Amino acid sequence: MIRHLLHEVWNALSHYRLRTILTLCSIVWGVTSLVLLLAYGNGFGAAMMAAFDQIGKDLIVIFPGQTSLQAGGERAGRRIQLELRDVEALKEGVPAIEAISPEVRRWLPVAYGPRTKNYSIAGVHAAFGRIRNAEVEDGRFLCADDVRYQRRVAVIGATLKKELYNERPAVGSIVKIKGVGFTVIGVLRKKTQITNYSTPDDMTAFVPLTTLSTMVDARYLNNIVVMPASNQFRDRFIEALRSSLARAHRFSPRDERAVTIMDWNQFRSIVTALSTGLNLLLMIIGSLTLSIGAVGVMNIMLVSVNERTREIGVLRAIGAKRSHVLIQILLEGLALTTTGGVAGILLALVLSQAMGSLPLLSALEQDPSGRADIRLSVSGLVVLIAVCVLMLVGLAAALVPAMRAARLKPVEAIRGD
Hints:
single chain, 13 strands, 417 residues, six-stranded mixed β-barrel, alpha+beta, 14 helices, two-stranded antiparallel ribbon
């Protein structure tokens, strides 16, 4: 029975070759558009997330604040300043810390040869590079010995290096910070950041905090950066950080204004929502484009039913049931949409590979690596969504002609040809 139906479907489609080819072209165009739009949405989301993670994955930043509650005999409104002892208190009081670093930033004159300009100078510990995703393109980042022995070494950002050195190599050279010579030991890879809490890393020189403290007053920290050992139970982890600092500074652990603890992962939901919204919009646009092809399938199938009225009447007269006629017409419509869908997906794969990457943030930030560009990603999920939409559209397009053919009465169908 099934073999006979498939044979009839093939005969019907091959009999109207031009009509079948035109219908297939509309389906191929619709499916290709849908898949490419979804792939663009995936690539956009991935590019935005890559740019977001440039500041550091799972980053938590602690800023000084001001108390808003009375606690331990202390009045409200007391200024809470962060110091190096707080870093040690957090290490001892919160075992779930994977890495932690203090951070002191000052704007100081930086000179190399005849060129002098004020840049952000960040005094940090060695763990800062790991926490803040500081990838080194040339040389190395700061190490524990650099901090311990107060070495006059610096790691400079990509933009700072370009402005002071142009195309000349920087590693091994001597740069003067506030008149003091520092050996450049590393140059950071270009960062395409869409979030930050201070001067971009590309415009910053990183030096050991112990060395910077001999040049400026670095008693009070600008902030402390923290990486948790696990991404689970982040709320409890943040509560533990605040409680540890509350014990050290004698403020209430419930006082969220005493110190500001920013969990950078909370901003990931904004980027995720943005990319999800764009994906939904692109899916709707692609589905509407595919629906145009479905309308063509329905019209051609209706014409086919009208032209085959006598054939359908004869089939009904010799015993074919309505369900047989319904299934045959449905199979013809689904065969068209399935064939066009497979061809459309394959064409989309070829086009996505041919296009490569599309410029986005890398062009704005002049990042030659292209890490924040859109790469069309035809993932398994994209193909699954396209197939589901295709099946729904194909079924809807074939259902109307199939129901019309199934409702034809044998005598009227034979007489009305």
